[in-house]
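Why run this: before we spend reagent on co-expression, it is cheaper to look at a predicted model of the complex and decide which construct boundaries make sense. The entries below are exactly what would go into the expression plan.
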Amino acid sequence: MTPGQRRWIFLAAIAGLAAFYLWGLVGLPGFGNYPGPYGDVINRIAVAQTNATGVVSAVNFEYRGFDTVGEEFILFVAATGVAVVLRHLRNERERNADGETGDAPDEGQRVPETSSAIRMVALIMTGPTIVVGWWLASHAQTDPSGGFQGGVVLATAFILIYLAGQFLAFQRVSPTDVTDAVEAIGAGGFAAVGVTAVAMGLPYLTNFLGLGITPGAVSSSGTIALISFFVGLEVGAAFILIVGELLDQTLLLREGSG
Amino acid sequence: MQYFPFVVVVWILGVGLYGIVTSRHLVHLIMCLIVVQSSTYVLLLGVGYKTGAVAPYFFDIPNHTPAVDPVVQALALTDVVVEAAVSALLLAIAVQAHKRFGTLDPQELVELRG
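The model came back. Tokens follow.
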């Protein structure tokens, strides 16, 4: 099939798909006329039931917490998958960042010097990024935040360290063994919170901790805050691992000659 | 105008699929997949929107203030995480494909497979 034929077949197919999709969507209540009732019900009762003022986090880590366990493990499995797909193959060997094993790196693989402007900005940004990430991961119950967002921002801080220094510095601040362990603690911690509830004779993932007194306080909302913290660890470590694996490919590996 | 956001959803889906079908580079193809997926964010948030409502955060507003649906927002969050995970895995596979076949053009990859 030539690209031209492929395009015509696609255009015919997408015309049909778009028509039916639009037809279906027009049957929905129009934009702005949310019919409810689930969102309205949860908005009414969530603060009273969980003492969390961030209802999105309450939904994620409490009402549909069981789904979020699965979602978190999707990320866990994806990070594992990246590590497996990018494992060292038999005909590959590791090369130092300075190409110590002999051959000069390929022209296309050579990494340009980092400019001092990038180094400066990355250094200045690292501290604030960690603070913001930590704040997001630990305030799921009050603000538009939570472990998923906080974890990604925390991972960004480590990638900034890579930008500010080099790969070796990135590896020193996030050794793979430690990141692996943190990721496992994050993923397992979430599941363990649920199992703890079962051990106490409650249904899986029941909020068994005290809910605190003030809605929206950092100490409030029981397991929502705890789960969000574990998710933050998991997400941060997973993204550091994924980025580390991909950097590893460009900087350390080269095809062996035979 | 009431259905304009839904038209946007179909448009984003359509251009993403067009990119996938005509792609000549695996990284470009993965980006197009991300575009396709982002149509679901617009759909989810559009479905849950209520005219004049606020975000579902009741830290400093009374509990009965009309707010948009938090369930679809939580689903959109799920969606973003899964998308990030899937694209990381696909990019890793693209790296390996390039290593093994020396090309990232899906057309040539098909030909190599025979």
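The CA atoms of residues 79 and 163 of chain A lie 22 Å apart. The two ends of chain A are 36 Å apart (CA to CA). Bring this page to Monday's planning discussion.
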